[in-house]
Every structure is written in C-alpha cells, then in structure tokens.
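wait is this the right file?? whatever heres the structure
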C-alpha cells in the first residue's frame, strides 16, 4: 500500500510501520499533527463527516502517490436510554456520528480508490452492532447500520475490485472507555485494576484490547493478504461474543 487514508492514531502507526505515506485525518490539530510527525505521514485537520475535508485528504493522498486504502472508525457514543427515553433530536444526532461519517468518507474516497484498481475500505464499528446492552439504542442502531453499508459497498463495487469490510471490536482501552472504568472503580470503592477485572470477567481473554491490536486487524483487512475477503465483519472482542450468556449466572453461583 502506498498512501492509505486513516482516521485513528493506532491505525496510522500500524500502516506507517507497513510502509508508505499515511494520510492522517482528524478534527484536533494537536493529535493529528503529532501522529503524522511521528510516522512521517501527512496531517489533514478536518472532519471525516465533512465532504470538503475528506476531499482535501484524498488530494493529499493523490499527491503522495495515490489512494489505495481507507480506514475509518465510527465516533463515540453514549448510554442514551431505550427507545422510549430517546427523543427524535437525540436519535437524529447520535447515529449521524456513525453512519453519516462513514457514508461521506466512502463517497468521497471511493472514486480515488477505483482509479487505482479498486482498493480496500475498512470501517471500525463495534460488537454493539451484533448484540446490544441496555440503554444503548442509538449507539447500537448506528453501529449496526455500518454493517449494511459495507455489505452494500462490497456487492456494488466488488466487480470493480473494491473490497469493503468491518472490524467489530469489543472493549478497547481508549479515552472513550476510561470514564466507565473510573465510574466502576468509584462505585466498588476499589482501584482501576480491580474495576477492569470485574468488567472483563465475562470475556474469555479476561482483558480489554489495546488499540494497536484492533489496528492490526484493520491493517490485515486493508492488505493484499485479505485480497479475497469482502463484505465481512471481523469480530475482535477477546472471545466475548462466543460466551453463552445464560451460563454466566451459573458460573457466579458455582
């Protein structure tokens, strides 16, 4: 790969280590410029949901040799409640972070990918696209929509050699997760390590993922090693989705 466009710092580092010039797109100048300087990439300060900003990033990739892969992740989410708790304004706003960002990014980058013979699109979603938790209606709905988008892309543009896949991570040690860890530690009157142990007790690997581990899955899907993989959702959740939830209570009882 010569010039992938990436919107997450861990993925930028992973792609840079694999060679080529990475175009890093993000809304905060400091983090984007730091990771670009660290990896020898190109920093583009902008919003992945803004067509003009994405076109600017595509132009930067073209100047660096051409765009051949796009890796983007959905934004954050909140425990907004169930369908009876969420007003229309909140529903219109929150899933937009997920779906509109992905649609804009894909629409503005796909022509450049096709120019070079197809390329690869990888979108980071969540295991919430496959199973919901209480009070996460808007978050789950937005992430689930991403699976349909990528399947549609795979079918529509597969004949042009474009591939489209989803990475669905479980809990990952990012800034988004830290407040939940802190709240659990406070409620339990314990420390962070104990809170993490409690939160990951139902995960076979008994831990959260590091961002670099999820980035490695995205790198694989964008690479030629995954040349026959498209329209797929790759789950990276430490085995959590393999657990029979009904047995957890029995395990606790002993």
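ok assuming it is, sequence goes like this
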């Amino acid at each position: 790969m010569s010039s992938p466009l990436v919107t997450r710092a861990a993925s930028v580092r992973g792609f840079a280590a694999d060679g080529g010039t990475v175009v890093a797109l993000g809304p905060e100048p400091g983090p984007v410029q730091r990771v670009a300087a660290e990896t020898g990439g190109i920093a583009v300060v902008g919003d992945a949901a803004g067509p003009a900003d994405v076109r600017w990033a595509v132009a930067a990739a073209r100047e660096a040799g051409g765009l051949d892969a796009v890796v983007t992740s959905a934004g954050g989410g909140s425990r907004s409640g169930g369908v009876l708790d969420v007003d229309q304004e909140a529903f219109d706003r929150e899933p937009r972070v997920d779906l509109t960002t992905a649609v804009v990014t894909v629409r503005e980058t796909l022509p450049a990918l096709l120019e070079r013979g197809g390329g690869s699109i990888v979108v980071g979603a969540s295991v919430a696209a496959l199973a919901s938790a209480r009070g996460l209606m808007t978050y789950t709905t937005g992430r689930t929509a991403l699976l349909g988008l990528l399947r549609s892309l795979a079918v529509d543009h597969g004949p042009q050699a474009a591939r489209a896949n989803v990475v669905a991570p479980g809990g990952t040690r990012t800034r988004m997760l830290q407040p939940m860890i802190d709240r659990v530690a406070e409620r339990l009157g314990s420390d962070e390590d104990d809170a993490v142990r409690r939160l990951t007790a139902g995960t076979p690997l008994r831990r959260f993922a590091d961002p670099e581990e999820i980035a490695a899955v995205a790198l694989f899907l964008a690479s030629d090693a995954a040349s026959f993989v498209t329209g797929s959702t790759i789950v990276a959740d430490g085995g959590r989705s393999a657990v029979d939830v009904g047995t957890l209570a029995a395990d606790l009882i002993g």
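Residues 1 and 19 are 7 Å apart (CA to CA). so i think its the right one actually
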